[in-house]
Amino acid sequence: MDYYEELRHHMVHRPLLLPGSFVIILNDKNEILSQERKPGVFGFPAGLMDIGVSLEETVRREVLEGTV
What we know:
Layout: H1 2-10, E1 20-22, E2 35-38, E3 41-43, E4 46-48, H2 55-67
Antiparallel strand pairs: 1-4, 2-3
């Protein structure tokens, strides 16, 4: 995340397009995996891509981080 913080420091008032991913995971009962981000607020595993990392690697990382 340091890269994005540094970028924001230089581009203080300009919009940033940040590449990221999210994934919808269904089990065999068609139930959707969600994660509680804060009490009562749920979302899909998601996050920003790091430099040199593929979209698929980003998804894997976020699922592991969000479901452990």
